[in-house]
Amino acid sequence: MIKKFLQKVFSKREKAAIAINQADVGATTANVISAKTHKIDRNLISPAALKTCEGLQKAGFQAYIVGGAVRDLLMQYKPKDFDVATNATPEEVYKIFRRSRIIGKRFRLVHVMWGNETIEVSTFRGHHQNTGDAKTADSGRIIRDNIFGTIEEDAVRRDFTANALYYDAATEKVLDFHNGVADLKAKLLRMIGDPVTRYQEDPVRMLRAVRLSAKLGLKIEAKTEAPIRKMADLLQDVPPSRLFDEMLKLFLSGHAVESINALRAQHLHHGLLPLLDVVLEQPMGERFVMLALKNTDDRILNGKSSNPSFLFATLLWHEVLAAWQTYQQQGNPPIPALHMAMNEVIDIQAEKMAIHNRFTATMKEIWAMQPRFEQRAGKRPYALLTHPRYRAGYDFLLLRCASGELPEDIGEWWTVFADASTETRTAMLLPDTGPKKRRRRPRKKAGSAPATTAATTSE
Ligand code: ATP
Ligand code: MG
């Protein structure tokens, strides 16, 4: 009984809330752009995103595709991920979709799963005050933010005008609250509201400005750009894991080289972004790292995948090389010295850069394979070809060759060897001058010195 009564009251309240939101939409000054005008190609929209909106709307809620996806659709790009905004609370969203889960603390969201695609559904955010479930640090940075609101409030809270566009999948209309469409036409990336306040609230927006302008070929509008240099230091307060996520997006945007040059131009480096310091502050490695980033950009623009572990392995390779040399100078044999160097770099750098453990195992595999590419005699090259990460190791080798660290012919040798016939391979092998397998000494000679540990090891 009580349950039924509560349900009734609750659904009345919900209906009232929806009515208010709808009135708000009616009263707002949003430009409403019809399909005829915006010409969004519906084929570029993920069916999962459409189904999510449909499910929410059928249950009586508002639902829009929002943010970067709408921006990309207007620019005729295929969006890589879809976000949906709604007036349903996370719990309500969760109840509607069987395959969904509530995630996040800073922002509570729902992930709705369709096959292997995930649609991120967020409830309209309201104004944040230091009350209720919102929290701000002394610097003005928003730490937690779970106040729900109307669609207009949600639009004001977004970062750039071009990111505050809402696509209604049912009517195919775009709601544009901050003249984002006009800015997009003018190729401008403009912050909503006062840029200084918005950077104080969330310094990561400075990185987003640089990343999105490089990715989309937009110019950062003058007032949006001006405070960045002065406010760069605020990035120091941002938790490393958030910086890491944003930098990873930047490195894997397909425009990493341009983004890094832009970050430099905006003075957003030097001590602010550990991941970037590693790239920029190693004269030896810069050529290698920039080549690697160019290579990643090309892969992504050609629709190929790019593995973050590979990228991090390139970013830290010259640190590994330096430490490897030091350990060898201290008298350690090459392979153990390499492993000591790898562990040292992972312990120090990976921690500083907040590289997640899930990436470090693959990074080590790629590094540990490298000396094996220089062994081109006997059975060893055949064994290397069967390594599960051979392809990544080989791509890494090619970068080392291209950067001048190794002679080009080593890379060329592997390129040919990998695809050659059995006879060609046999003919290609170099004379075996490497260490021969040691013959076992006859056992048990009392008093004899213990055998030295083998220098050649494994990965
Ligand atoms: P990308 O194409 O790289 O995914 P995006 O703009 O979609 O770019 P997301 O991180 O996916 O970036 O964010 C989705 C949307 O959430 C943005 O379009 C924007 O509306 C909003 N948003 C993201 N980060 C912020 C932020 N720091 N401050 C305000 N709004 C943000
Ligand atoms: Mg996005």
Can you walk me through this structure?
With 459 residues, the chain is of the alpha+beta class. It has 2 domains: 191 residues, Beta Polymerase, domain 2, CATH 3.30.460; 156 residues, cca-adding enzyme, domain 2, CATH 1.10.3090. Helices cover 52% and strands 10% of the residues. The strands form 3 sheets. Strands 1-10-9-2-3-6-5-4 form an 8-stranded mixed β-sheet. The protein has a two-stranded antiparallel ribbon with strand order 7-8. A two-stranded parallel ribbon has the order 11-12. A hairpin with a 5-residue loop joins strand 7 and strand 8. Helix 8 crosses helix 10 and helix 9 crosses helix 12. The protein starts with a helix and ends in a 31-residue tail after the last helix. It binds adenosine-5'-triphosphate and magnesium ion. The site of adenosine-5'-triphosphate has 12 residues, from helix 9.
| Rg for CA atoms | 28 Å
Q: Name the average pLDDT.
A: 85
For the largest beta-sheet, the strand count, sense and barrel status come to: 8 strands, mixed
Query: Quick one: how many beta strands?
Result: 12
Give the second-level CATH assignment, the architecture of the largest domain. 2-Layer Sandwich
Question: How are strands sequenced across the largest beta sheet?
Answer: 1-10-9-2-3-6-5-4
Bulk shape? elongated
Low-confidence stretches: 1-27, 447-459
User: How far apart lie the N and C ends?
Assistant: 66 Å
Q: By helix and strand content, what is the structural category?
A: alpha+beta
**Which compounds are bound in this model?**
adenosine-5'-triphosphate, magnesium ion
Number of helical regions: 21
Helix fraction, binned, reads 40-55%
Q: In CATH, what is the class of the largest domain?
A: Alpha Beta
| CATH homologous superfamily designation of the largest domain | Beta Polymerase, domain 2
CATH topology of the largest domain: Beta Polymerase, domain 2
Say what oligomer this is.
Answer: single chain
Whole-number count of domains: 2
Classify the beta-strand content into a percent band: 5-15%
